[in-house]
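## retry 2 of 3
previous attempt timed out at serialization; input unchanged, resubmitting
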Amino acid sequence: MLWLSESDVVRLLPMAEAIGQMRAAFEDLARGEASNQPRRRLVLPSGAVLHSMAGAWGGYFGAKIYSTHPGSGAHFLVLLYRAEDGRPLALIEANHLGQIRTGATTGLATDLLAAPEASTVGLIGSGFQARAQLEAVAAVRQLRRIRVWSPTREHRERFAAEQSEKLGVEVRSVGSAREAVEDAEIVVTATSAREPVLEADWVAAGAHVNAVGSNQPRRRELPAQLVRRADLIVVDSVEQARIESGDLLLAFADDDWRRLVELKDLVAGRLLWERPPGKVSVFKSNGLGLEDVAAAALVYRKAVAEGCGRELPLFHS
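## retry succeeded, writing output
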């Protein structure tokens, strides 16, 4: 059984390959050849929470298990097993794995939903997830203008400088969320906000919106008006969205759930979205155990091929 560290994951899971891996995973999910188990949470009186989510894909199955606490942050691990016989294959540090696969799924959705010529991004959020979100969007569209806003000026200016150098495109720190979003062809929200971070009338006709920050039923980044205005709403999983997607739960009536399209159906070509002029699309990402297993499988295969990682003598072969 291999132990793979955060540094191994960062080296072995480049964004372009991760996007391809997410596409393959959702193709198999559409064919019934992959599966996902929604996230579950065990909440303790101390404020600590144990989160678990699982999936199976491509000869592998596994689970991501992580803890969170207001005082000590989050700690992520993925356990990867061989589907054929249940043999444990790898234990993987998964903070960056989760960051990259979340970005990669956004990249996949953006490639399918955003206008082919889209080149302007409005990003709300400048933290850990925002970095991978921007990298993924840049991997599928030729970006020319990027604006970022987050509440702390120092954070967003540092983010803008770092990402400008990394992407080779100017990333401009702006003074308000509205300034970031207005006229953007692609909008990304990657925040820890409890209440909406933008207003519906800021979003341009024809824009595509990726909302990735919230996976709690009482938290949302998008206002109900934008959810109701959207012409197409795509989720990674309807089942999981009904449990934890506050952006939808706080906006939808019972009949509205039939509006949702799952990402797997777009990937499989069951719905062709040839963006009509002026139409707005939304991808609401919650993050799936399937995505973690697909990302972990790629990391594991490359680690074995390269002979890296450390053997853990925890199990009898």
